[in-house]
Design a protein that fits this description.
Blueprint: H1 4-8, E1 10-15, E2 21-26, H2 32-41, E3 58-62, E4 65-66, E5 83-90, H3 99-106
Parallel strand pairs: 1-5
Antiparallel strand pairs: 1-2, 3-4, 3-5
Length: 117
């Protein structure tokens, strides 16, 4: 039987660069840092080749943007009870918030194209 708590949970399908996916369920109060730690602590068996050394280098990408550590799923207004897809990548540092737009204004002759494999 589905409870109200189940309906309030956020379902994430995380995709690695390799294309492997895994579904997880989180509270809307969970932050990007909480999610990275949970995934690291519960690393899926099928992802062994992609295992990282620390949860601190796991980064979430949603709608083309890196999520900074304190951003909660609730703040993203994700639909509860439905599955949302995010990319999970290993990266030491994140770009500063809004730095992409500033860089575009300063360098108008450079292309800022990104390809996810």
């Amino acid at each position: 039987m589905t409870t109200q708590r189940d309906l309030d949970m956020v379902h994430l399908r995380l995709i690695l660069v390799s294309g492997k996916t895994q579904d997880f369920t989180f509270s809307p109060n969970d932050s990007a840092t909480d999610i990275a730690k949970h995934v690291f602590d519960n690393w899926p068996a099928g992802w062994e080749e992609e295992r990282v050394s620390s949860p601190s280098i796991l980064r979430l990408i949603f709608q083309g943007r890196f999520l900074h550590g304190n951003v909660t799923l609730g703040a993203l207004k994700l639909p509860p009870g439905r599955t949302t897809v995010m990319h999970l990548v290993a990266r030491e540092t994140l770009p500063e918030p809004n730095s992409h737009g500033q860089r575009n204004r300063e360098k108008t002759t450079e292309s800022n194209c990104c390809l996810l494999l």
